[in-house]
Amino acid sequence: MENNNKVSEVRLPNENPKVRYALLDELRGFLVLCMVVYHGLLSVYSLLGIKTADTLFEFFTPAVPFFAGTFIALSGMMCGFSHSNLLRGVKCFAVAIIITVVTVLGSEFMGDIAIRFGILHLLGFSMIFCGIFNFALKRVNKWVGLIIALGLFIIFYGVPTDYPDFVGIRNIIPSEWYFNKNLYPLGITSPNFYSADYFPLFPWLFLFVAGYFLYKFHFVEKFSSLFKPKRIKPLGFLGRHSLLIYILHQPIIYLACLPFI
């Protein structure tokens, strides 16, 4: 998951550069912690066969789209605080490609742990998208942009075959596309496709863009007394270092499990 000091030290353009909006870091830290726990349960069950871990993993699975969606929308909102989204996006996507290479190679020894298009791929591409098209997005009315983005998110939510199809979008997508092995970044996957972490552009790009328009409401500035105070410092730390935690948490989990295999 993405991290950047300019984003972590969230501030508005006209404010003192030392002003921090700690609640945003803490919220992101909580979501990162949820991710670590969720992935940890899966790894413990996969490597050690502990049934309790699998039971807890299945219990929390229905909540994953909510927590992941909140993180993605929050990441989109933070694009409004940064003046270098294109550069941030390129760096994030580059890290995602490295993770893909490492996990594909690691699958030869530890089962299929390959991350072919995970949340870092999504966030990197989305930041690049907002960086390139910022000249157009900034001219769109915040209400119009937010409603359109959320509408497209709902419409395209059913593109991946394992997601609920609320509006029948799969009925108008040629069925042969779902046998194409190269369309998985769009959410169109062949039957044997697998990615240990999978967040395709459709529908999640539109939720990221919705977060971008959410920033334009400037509710952080309006309620600065709520967002500035530090409340749970460990969560703030996790939020400020979310990219590093995303990169390191799985290797650490695997290494912790190895002595018990």
Describe this structure as you would to a colleague:
- The structure is a single chain.
- With 261 residues, the chain is mainly alpha-helical.
- The chain has helices at residues 5-8, 22-48, 51-60, 64-78, 85-110, 119-132, 134-137, 142-156, 201-215, 219-222, 224-227, 233-240, 242-257.
- Helix 5 (85-110) packs antiparallel against helix 6 (119-132).
- The longest helix has 27 residues, at 22-48.
Beta-strand residue fraction: under 5%
Beta strand count: 0
Whole-number tally of structural domains: 1
Low-confidence stretches: 1-17
Helix-strand category:
mainly alpha
Number of continuous helical runs: 13
The biggest beta sheet is recorded as: none
Gyration radius over CA: 19 Å
Shape: globular
- The overall pLDDT average reads 88
Helical amount:
55-70%
H and E order: HHHHHHHHHHHHH
What distance lies between the first and last C-alpha atoms, to the nearest angstrom? 29 Å
How would you classify the quaternary structure?
single chain
Task: Write a short abstract of this structure.
This protein is mainly α. The protein has one domain (5-260). The protein is built from 13 helices and no strands.
